[in-house]
Specification:
eight-stranded mixed sheet; binds beta-D-ribofuranose; binds calcium ion; two-stranded antiparallel ribbon
Length: 311
């Protein structure tokens, strides 16, 4: 299995990304690190512990990281994920705790200790990853790949031009894309292909496990905000797409391109400028996901939740 670390801000779709990573045999989840994003750091960290508790993920360290973006103030997404960051289901008091180590230090240590290079899967603002690469530039050589959810080849969701994870910490995203580490970007253009339709929700319920029902409750709340805010018929499950790309690259097709993060645009700060047609002459610095194999993606997602529920 591919060793991975998920850096997340749960978050409904982050919750399912954690479950996919913990439940699928193709990846070895070494750690879950948290960052401020969808909600404040204390809430995203509590939510990671809640997800681990209900999913029976007890052998993976959870570490809290940065509580604010590198430069600008934090602007959370309570309108999308609720006041808790994970509104919808009822969660029991978490029994999984955090480790007493900063997320960046934990990632640095695991990169050094693991016998093979490790894949980082950020599904949140890139603050922790940018800090890691800035503080420990030599760590880039220990990173097999950074497969992130963020950006878009098309329009944004927080602004017409910018996607939430990149907009929340554009300076961090800029550092990651310019780092020289191999980066794969799973942006809105591909994650909007992962719509959790009523048929998908019914498949989680049909698992007949408490965890399957928790997933259905998460998707039902997430669906209500996506319908109200953007008129989506079903909510897009962004973050698991990045995990799926690591599990089986054939699930998420990519093209190579130069990606720049707009830091100064009056209307476009936080936009990912993707040179799909090679018109700038700038060298390729990323793989950019374009097409999701939707059917196999959902099969894998549901199988992972089934495996955790059985454990
Ligand atoms: C991203 O923003 C967050 O709200 C989601 O968890 C996802 O990571 C989508 O733009
Ligand atoms: Ca997220």
């Amino acid at each position: 299995p591919v060793p991975i670390i998920i850096d997340c801000d749960p978050g409904h779709d982050d919750a399912l990304a954690i479950m996919l990573a913990a439940g699928d045999p193709a990846v070895d989840l070494l750690a879950i690190t948290t960052v401020a994003g969808n909600q404040t750091l204390d809430k995203t960290t509590l939510n990671a512990r809640r997800v681990c508790t209900v999913a029976g993920i007890t052998d993976v360290p959870v570490a809290a990281g940065c509580d604010r973006p590198l430069v600008q103030p934090l602007d959370v997404a309570a309108d999308v994920h609720g006041v808790s960051g994970l509104d919808g289901p009822m969660f029991p008091a978490p029994t999984v705790d955090v480790v007493p180590e900063h997320a960046v230090d934990l990632i640095h240590r695991l990169l050094a200790e693991h016998p093979e290079p490790v894949t980082l899967v950020p599904t949140a603002p890139l603050t922790n990853i940018a800090l890691l690469l800035t503080r420990y530039p030599q760590d880039a050589a220990r990173i097999r790949e950074i497969v992130l959810m963020g950006g878009s080849t098309e329009r944004g969701n927080r602004t017409p031009a910018a996607e939430f994870n990149v907009l929340t910490d554009p300076e961090a995203a800029d550092i990651v894309f310019r780092s020289g580490a191999p980066v794969t970007m799973c942006g809105l253009n591909v994650t909007h292909q992962a719509l959790a339709t009523p048929e998908v929700v019914a498949r989680f319920v049909a698992l007949g496990t408490p965890l399957g029902q928790t997933c259905a409750d998460l998707l039902t709340f997430f669906g209500s905000t996506y319908r109200a805010l953007w008129g989506f018929p079903s909510p897009p499950l962004h973050d698991p797409v990045a995990v799926a790309r690591v599990i089986d690259p054939g699930l998420v097709h990519c093209v190579e391109a130069h990606v720049a993060v707009e830091l100064h645009g009056r209307y476009t700060r936080g936009a990912t400028v993707v040179d799909l047609h090679r018109s700038t002459g700038r060298p390729v610095n990323a793989r950019v996901a374009t097409v999701l194999e939707t059917g196999p993606f959902w099969d894998r997602m549901i199988a992972a939740v089934a495996a955790l529920g059985a454990g």
